[in-house]
Specification:
The chain is α/β, with parallel strands linked by helices. Helices cover 31% and strands 19% of the residues. The radius of gyration is 29 Å and the shape is globular. About 1% of the residues have low confidence.
């Protein structure tokens, strides 16, 4: 017997699932059965479900585990509770219905199965196009297989629109149990991606390694549409599902740059309920602006203009455009998904998109945009188009222009043909009235071919507030590079592969409840506080090379010392210490975690003094092979590293990679000591010191508090900021050392503001 199972929501039913059900009734023989789970259905929609003896309907809302999971995990909905643009890869709610329907069906079938029984998951956006019977399907499902799936080479997880389980197999049944367990205990958010396809495939690989007889229906598939290239395609057609998200030319990836944070701040300050954007592109900026506006309103109307698929190579040359284009349908789908998500949060997002040349479409939309409170112009970049866009939007109280260019530190700037916005904004500034604001915001966004890109703001309604002062502060962005040449680092890696014998440490481990205490060498390092923390948490201490001898002298045991330095051991560190002296004394019980990019002279020196040496691989630009598509990562062929090597990311320094390594090992509780990122005391003479003809020490300000730092320490502070605001990192972080730059960075970060669940009960009876 072959039992199919699927699931759908009310919107899914109206859009595609009803067609699926009708095609099943029309084409399936009565030796096949479909169990269809619906969730969150109103009663009138339940009454609309097509009836057939081969279809059994079940209400997924009767599965209590699913309801508990959705309530417990509701913030992990792809927007972190409405705080970020929607990312389907990080939606742990939308895809859970599939898992709970599939496992609930399997567990109910489990007690009545025979050796030939199959349960087949089929996405609800699949249409059966020809008569289908058990006999025809069994020709596709091998007798000895325990699981049949659609594998893909061009993405690191299978297409899960069709998965067949022989549920009489103990291994298959256990795999389904583990999949369900990932959701029941919330383990799903510990994965790199949170959708069912990614999680299922990771479990599948583990089970195959332990002997599961899995049959890949598409071993030689090209591209991502595995279903369409499988034997199933002779009977069925799969329309949407995960595939629509995976096609690279569906929607171009979002671009994250500092000036777009400024744009969000401007929206928070000035936008009311209606936003106009010329240059919708992939819809990402529309979503970001709407999220910013939703912080002060429950309803946002967006009007977007773009060429979409009408763009041509000739027009791209005229409009100085270098980005690939998106289709109107793709962006409509993306904004519809966002609107649905916002509706779940009690917010209303409506939008209208116009396709074509904005010199014409803005005129056609005159009535729609008449009451706009905020306009963002980032469409065609020719001066003619920029001026036309402004003329059609000059009634809007606040107008923001992108692509105002200035010279970079080397005096470079794009050619005159790119400076149409500059000339237009100069004219606006010259003729502005008293009380109006014309300001080019500071920026560090570099242009590939030279120059800096800025936002230019025109606030013509004099009753509106002034620009927020933080927008006028110049953001300092450090872009670190490897401190040694690429070939030098590759040689280090290859030599260390022979020197170090133990390489098993850097692998993904299950989360644990232990505490990792990572100790850097900042002046705020308080040994008494460190001792108290070790005693209270029973945590393990991981030090960096500069803090290692300090902790030894304080007789503080270090479980590990992490080393990441491709420079020779006889050289002088940036702290003015000969590296060799840092390891004059070694505790035989300390585990030394040496990155493969470390200079072999360091490795050899430590190996002579201890046997506790473990290798790991740090990600750097040197190990990345150049590819045509920058989104595809390949290991540099000059290294002796295998393509499936695990690389530890996290930042520019050993302390930050220490966090990445310990998180990989399963630690989720972290205490950070000595992560100062600033110089506490500088004389007036020191403040004038130069390094490579540039100031050695840099004044910075955050949260209104001023610090002195260096380029290297500022890079570490930026790494910390990214970590502390990374909503996908599951970790409990405590930063020690007040009156430091990193402590100020942490104070207002995402992780610092996460509530503790017991706080909810305070004051409640």
């Amino acid at each position: 017997m072959i039992n199919f199972v699927t699931s759908f929501s009310p919107d899914g039913y109206k859009t595609y699932a009803k067609n699926m059900l009708l095609s099943v009734i029309e084409n399936w023989k009565d030796d096949l059965k479909l169990t269809a789970y619906y969730h969150d259905f109103p009663e009138d929609l339940v009454a609309d479900l097509p009836q057939s003896p081969i279809i059994e309907y079940r209400n997924l809302n009767n599965v209590k585990d699913m309801l508990d999971y959705r309530e417990r995990m509701k913030v992990y909905d792809g927007t972190m509770g409405g705080k970020t643009p929607y990312n389907w890869r990080m939606d742990a709610i939308k895809w859970c219905h599939k898992v709970y329907a599939m496992t609930d069906c399997a567990f109910k079938l489990g007690d009545t199965t025979t050796n030939s029984d199959w349960m087949v998951w089929l996405d609800a956006d699949t249409i059966t196009t020809k008569p289908l019977s058990e006999e025809k399907l069994l020709k596709i499902l091998p007798d000895k297989a325990e699981l049949v799936y659609l594998g893909r080479k061009d993405v690191d997880y299978s297409e899960t629109s069709f998965v067949a389980f022989n549920i009489s197999s103990e291994s298959t049944y256990c795999l389904l149990g583990d999949l369900r367990g990932c959701y029941d205990i919330g383990e799903v958010i510990s994965y790199r991606e949170w959708h069912d396809g990614f999680i299922f495939d990771r479990l599948l690989k583990i089970y195959i390694a332990h002997g599961l007889r899995a049959h890949n229906l598409t071993p030689d598939v090209k591209g991502l549409a595995a279903f369409a290239q499988s034997p199933l395609s002779q009977y069925m057609k799969h329309f949407k599902g995960n595939l629509k998200h995976d096609i690279p030319n569906d929607v171009a990836p979002d671009v994250k740059l500092p000036r777009y944070n400024q744009l969000a701040k401007l929206v928070r300050t000035y936008a009311k309920d209606s936003i106009v954007e010329v240059g919708t592109w992939n819809g990402g900026r529309a979503i970001e602006m709407a999220l910013a506006a939703f912080e002060k309103t429950d309803s946002v109307s967006y009007v977007g203009f773009d060429l979409f698929e009408e763009a041509t190579e000739e027009l791209d040359k005229i409009e100085l455009n270098s980005k690939r284009h998106n289709t109107l349908d793709a962006i409509t789908n993306r904004l519809n998904e966002f609107a649905i998500k916002m509706k779940e949060k009690g917010k209303t997002f409506t939008f209208t998109l116009f396709k074509g040349d904005s010199k014409q479409t803005l005129k056609e939309a005159k009535d729609i945009i008449a009451k706009a409170s905020f306009a963002y112009i980032d469409g065609g970049h020719s001066e003619e188009t920029v001026r036309s866009d402004y003329e059609n939007l000059k009634h809007v109280p606040v107008i923001v222009f992108d692509d105002f260019f200035s010279k970079d530190e080397n005096g470079n700037i794009l050619g005159e043909e790119h400076q149409g916005t500059n000339r237009l904004f100069a004219e606006i500034s010259e003729h502005k009235k008293d009380g109006q604001i014309c300001m080019v915001l500071p920026s560090s966004d570099k242009v590939k071919d030279g120059g800096i890109t800025h936002l230019a703001v025109y606030v013509q309604d004099t009753s509106l507030p002034p620009l927020p002062p933080e927008l006028m502060r110049v953001p300092i962005v450090v872009r670190p590079r490897d401190c040694m040449p690429k070939d030098y680092i590759i040689n280090n890696i290859n030599e260390n592969l022979s020197l170090i014998k133990k390489w098993g440490i850097a692998q993904a481990c299950r989360p644990n409840s232990e505490t990792a205490i990572i100790v850097s060498a900042g002046p705020s390092l308080n040994f008494n506080e460190l001792r108290e923390t070790i005693k209270r948490t029973n945590g393990v201490v991981l030090s960096v090379k500069h803090s290692y001898p300090k902790l030894l002298s304080e007789q503080i045991h270090q479980w590990g010392c992490i080393i990441l330095d491709p420079r020779p051991i006889d050289g002088v560190s940036t702290h003015g210490i000969v590296r060799k002296k840092l390891f004059n004394n070694i505790d035989q019980f300390t585990n030394f975690f040496i990155a493969s990019m470390t200079d072999p002279s360091v490795t050899k020196y430590i190996i002579k003094r201890t046997k506790n040496v473990h290798g790991w691989h740090a990600y750097s630009d040197a190990i990345r092979q150049a590819t045509k598509d920058p989104r595809i990562f390949e290991v540099n062929k000059s290294t002796n590293l295998s393509p499936d090597t695990t690389f530890v990311t996290g930042g520019t320094c050993a302390a930050m990679r220490g966090f990445g390594l310990m998180h990989l090992l399963g630690f989720r509780n972290f205490h950070l000591f000595g992560f100062d990122c600033n110089i506490p005391f500088l004389t007036e003479e020191q403040k004038k010191e130069k390094l490579d003809d540039k100031p050695k020490y840099i004044p910075v300000e955050t949260n209104g508090v001023k610090f002195w730092t260096t380029g290297e320490l500022l890079a570490m502070a930026q790494d910390c900021e990214r970590l502390f605001n990374n909503k996908t990192v599951d970790a409990n972080i405590v930063v020690h050392g007040t009156n430091t730059l990193v402590h100020e960075v942490f104070k207002n970060s995402f992780h610092a503001k996460l509530p503790y669940y017991l706080d909810y009960f305070k004051g409640k009876k």
